[in-house]
Design a protein that fits this description.
alpha+beta
Amino acid sequence: MTLHEACELAQRLHDAPGVDVIAIGRFAPPEEINRMMAWKISLTTERGGRPRVIASLTEAERLVPSIAGTNNTKPQRMLF
């Protein structure tokens, strides 16, 4: 997931009831982080109190079914 995709998904998760987004990042030891690593989202839900890290829309939809199908289209680009 790119940073842009992670930010868009984090917004959808943030808007879902019972979900708290904690952070967006590359969760790995500092010596393992590189530019090619995927971005991930850390969150908690009402159902399970411990933080979870997700790396894709599929994982997010499995964890938070209420976001499934809420944004299937890419946002339109601004013309200015």
